[in-house]
Amino acid sequence: MLRLFANLVIVLACNFFLIVGSAGLSFAQECPDPAKATNASAQQKQASKRYNRALPSYRARSARYNMALVGDSLVELWQPWIKDSFPTRPVMNLAVAGDTTQNALYRLDDLDLPDFHPTDVVVLIGTNNLGTKTAPCAVAAGVVAVVSKVRALWPGAHIYALSIPPRGKRYAFYEDVRIPANQLVASSLAEMPGVTFVQMNDDMLRCGKPSDKDCSNYKPDHLHFNEGAYKLITSFLAAAGLQL
Description:
Blueprint: H1 2-22, H2 25-30, H3 49-60, E1 67-71, H4 73-76, H5 82-85, E2 91-93, H6 101-109, E3 120-124, H7 136-153, E4 158-162, H8 175-189, E5 195-198, H9 202-205, H10 227-239
Parallel strand pairs: 1-2, 1-3, 3-4, 4-5
Helix pairs in contact: 1-7, 6-7, 7-8
């Protein structure tokens, strides 16, 4: 399994260099070694109280679940509406607030769920990797590494990888990083079997074009979602083929 994951990372790294190289030399020079976003640099981080409470129950009853969510606070805070979003599915919410792609890789390594065989996994990760000094290809490499790790853990599952959504001031935080990172993720995952990249409708999420006007889909921090956003995300997943 580890050898399969390592081979996937090597292939994906080559794909990134090809994609980035076609965008121009100056951009390619900004891209760090994609290996920095792989399991080799996974970072330990303390889990949330909800996750620590839920994981023993997930382990004890793992055979009854057939779906998992992987990600950061955008997914962990989905918990109050999970049953409404997926009424026919027993869902494990394996997300932890504040996680980067590197943190998520570490957490996936430490799951220990031998009896869990999901048919579907939803991944939403990467917003905590956005920043002024981060190249889009580095963010994308991390997201693809997480998806690859999920594929190695649960080869029988279909993976739905959601795009990194808008956030921040005017709901346009680091758009020069976020948008091309999503494009790179889409390009890489297009060749991975059993994976569907779901490009969410940014303007629907932020109630229109980038604006200083508050959007009811977001909390006042312009980062975390209210119920309306989760209803939209559920509709995007259903349109992509996920059974709710």
